[in-house]
Amino acid sequence: MKNLVKIFIVVTVIFGCSFISSAQNPVKIGHIDFNTLLAAMPGIDSVKIKLQNYQQSLTDQMDAMKSEFENKYMDYQSQASGMSDLIKQTKEKELSDLQARIDAFQQKANQDLQAKQQELVAPFIEKAKIAIQEVAKEHKYTYVLNSIEDVVIYKEGSDDIMPLVKKKLNMQ
User: In this structure, what DSSP letter does residue 29 have?
Assistant: First the structure.
């Protein structure tokens, strides 16, 4: 019983000290629109161009595959009445296989485009995060929130640190 009382006293003292120390260090909150920062970073335009070019190459390939399918389908339709059942089945299987390849390509192309975007944008995201962390430490922010529309509903009592981060990134 004595040990239980001692433990209770120690826990109470620890919580009391931590409450007092947190009262001495007030919470300071900052906010930044991370997407706006990212869009304004130097070099991000070249990333957008690279992504557009990559997407266009995938679209061109997809269009070529669709065109091939359409040509084969129209050929099949125009000649179907004179084909034997075996040839019809072979042509239908060929069209079905081609459609499956198109679907698989489209799915893979979407995955590749997302991976390419992540690969190209990741260094900018990392650079922005580091700058935000440095600004937060320099200006003693306890928390920095991403103020994307509809995420931060109310922000009185917080500071917009966009100018500080832009200065840190030499963007003004």
Answer: E
Quick: pLDDT tens for 125-166: 999 999 999 999 999 888 888 887 666 655 666 788 888 888
Cα(26)–Cα(18) distance, rounded to whole angstroms?
13
Range of the domain at 20: 2-168
- Asked if 38 and 124 count as a contact pair (C-beta separation under 8 A), the reply is yes
Residue with tokens 């922005």: 128
Q: Count of domains in the chain?
A: 1
In 24-59, which positions are buried (b, 16+ CB within 10 angstroms) versus exposed (e)?
eeeeeebbbbbeebeeebeeeeebeeeeeebbeebe
Question: How far is Cα 128 from Cα 58, in angstroms, rounded to an integer?
Answer: 30
pTM, rounded to two decimals:
0.67
Would you tell me the crossing angle of helices 85-138 and 44-79 to the nearest 10 degrees? 170
Q: What is the pLDDT of residues 156-170, one digit of tens each?
A: 667 888 888 888 888
Q: What is d(CA 110, CA 108) in angstroms, rounded to the nearest whole number? A: 5
The token pair that represents 22 in the structure block? 């947190």
User: In terms of Cα–Cα distance, which of 77, 112, 107 is closest to 91?
Assistant: 77
Tens digit of each residue's pLDDT (9 = 90 or more) over 25-61: 678 888 889 999 999 999 999 999 999 999 999 999 9
